[in-house]
Amino acid sequence: MFITSSSPSLSLNLISLISRSPQKFQSSNINSRIFNSRILNSRILNFTMSMSLKTHAFAANPIRSRTPKSTDPFSPTNAFKTLKTLLLSNTNEPSSPDFKILPFRKGRPLAGTIVGSDVGSPNWHLGWLSLGECREYLESSEVRLSEDLLVYLGFKDEEDVVYWAFDVSGDDGVVSKLGGKQFCFVELRTLMVATDWADSSVMGELAVAGHARALLEWHNTSRFCGFCGGKTVPMEAGRRKECSNEPCKKRIYPRVDPVVIMLVVDKENDRALLSRQSRFVPRMWSCLAGFIEPGESLEEAVRRETWEETGIEVGEVVYHSSQPWPVGPSSMPCQLMVGFFAYATSFEINVDKDELEDAKWHSREEVKEALAFTEYRKAQRTTAVKVEQMCKGVEKGQSLSSDFNVESGELAPMFIPGPFAIAHHLISSWVNQVEVNGASTETKQGVSSNL
């Protein structure tokens, strides 16, 4: 386990730094369209957003901060008993604790928008339903509100509420019913971009949705025992599963796939290694990343992945932070991104074309320009509009890459993932020389660990 200081300060470059006056660009460099260096540095100092995120997107889930005691009415076992009683009695009478249910369809949570809010503002909320509302929507559908399909998410004792997730992918009729109430099932990635990163309440809802999706996808992919092939059944209100085969009875717990993600730094020449994958939107560059192999430490994984993908050798590895990432493919329902700075000891790039499309060294100034040139707020606003349109029954196709263009319509020559991704914070911390674990990113600082 890592021994680190409190959550690192994560500086965000969210404000548009693009000049509307063409004379503030270097006219002699038409291809790159970069800023005058002095103006760029001044604008970054003056306009870099001063706020700091306390946590990454999908972290700091507000409804599972602690595990209740077995005697607590909010515990998975006791809450499940109460829920089962209510379902068997077919009553909608108030109960203590109360129950809120979040439906999912094909990995998408139910969401709605706040009526009367400003157009383009990040204004979505999760579509929590009461037990009675859930029954009503499912009344004539092929989906049954069974206790075996409900997954315990957590509780808020101050509100006397226990929260559950429920998969309704088996019936398309539910979509039209909920659509009449201006609810819709929205991709988690879309909600991620549309979220106001400065709003801790909405960030909390995003974390809840991420946790719920990870659990539901895990249930979908673990329907059979990997040891004997027997059917698995949910246990402890869906927090684990067990093989139904009596001779086996193997216990199965939610899957987490650890991934190292690293910003490789050339300290001597003040530059960072960024890469592109073929699946990236045009002009987007990011950090290297890769899955940890069995029997491998995190530091070893950083060095191996960097060398395999780019031929660069790494010496010191410094921990930055970690982020749950429940927006990957359903076969990997929840990745845990573990972020590092990796200090290069060799510098000649040899790209593995099976893994990457390209990898290049970029100077600090070039990366500053990418942070300044990209309009993350614009992407946030346009995606919020998209969510609002979807909830009103109007879905408008839009290219995500176009959201990162400058207001003049010019293409950003290079951009990096937005503040919803740990890659952004690794890169931004390096660019702005933010202190990480009590030391500047410019100072080599080892991290104590028990691995």
From TrEMBL:
<dbReference type="InterPro" id="IPR015376">
    <property type="entry name" value="Znr_NADH_PPase"/>
</dbReference>
<dbReference type="GO" id="GO:0006742">
    <property type="term" value="P:NADP+ catabolic process"/>
</dbReference>
<keyword id="KW-0378">Hydrolase</keyword>
<protein>
    <recommendedName>
        <fullName>NAD(+) diphosphatase</fullName>
        <ecNumber>3.6.1.22</ecNumber>
    </recommendedName>
</protein>
<dbReference type="Pfam" id="PF09296">
    <property type="entry name" value="NUDIX-like"/>
</dbReference>
<dbReference type="GO" id="GO:0005829">
    <property type="term" value="C:cytosol"/>
</dbReference>
<dbReference type="InterPro" id="IPR015375">
    <property type="entry name" value="NADH_PPase-like_N"/>
</dbReference>
<dbReference type="InterPro" id="IPR020476">
    <property type="entry name" value="Nudix_hydrolase"/>
</dbReference>
<dbReference type="Pfam" id="PF00293">
    <property type="entry name" value="NUDIX"/>
</dbReference>
<keyword id="KW-0520">NAD</keyword>
<dbReference type="InterPro" id="IPR015797">
    <property type="entry name" value="NUDIX_hydrolase-like_dom_sf"/>
</dbReference>
<dbReference type="GO" id="GO:0046872">
    <property type="term" value="F:metal ion binding"/>
</dbReference>
<dbReference type="InterPro" id="IPR050241">
    <property type="entry name" value="NAD-cap_RNA_hydrolase_NudC"/>
</dbReference>
<dbReference type="InterPro" id="IPR000086">
    <property type="entry name" value="NUDIX_hydrolase_dom"/>
</dbReference>
<dbReference type="GO" id="GO:0019677">
    <property type="term" value="P:NAD+ catabolic process"/>
</dbReference>
<comment type="similarity">
    <text>Belongs to the Nudix hydrolase family. NudC subfamily.</text>
</comment>
<keyword id="KW-0479">Metal-binding</keyword>
<dbReference type="GO" id="GO:0005777">
    <property type="term" value="C:peroxisome"/>
</dbReference>
<keyword id="KW-0460">Magnesium</keyword>
<dbReference type="GO" id="GO:0035529">
    <property type="term" value="F:NADH pyrophosphatase activity"/>
</dbReference>
<dbReference type="InterPro" id="IPR049734">
    <property type="entry name" value="NudC-like_C"/>
</dbReference>
<dbReference type="Pfam" id="PF09297">
    <property type="entry name" value="Zn_ribbon_NUD"/>
</dbReference>
<feature type="domain" description="Nudix hydrolase">
    <location>
        <begin position="254"/>
        <end position="384"/>
    </location>
</feature>
<dbReference type="InterPro" id="IPR020084">
    <property type="entry name" value="NUDIX_hydrolase_CS"/>
</dbReference>
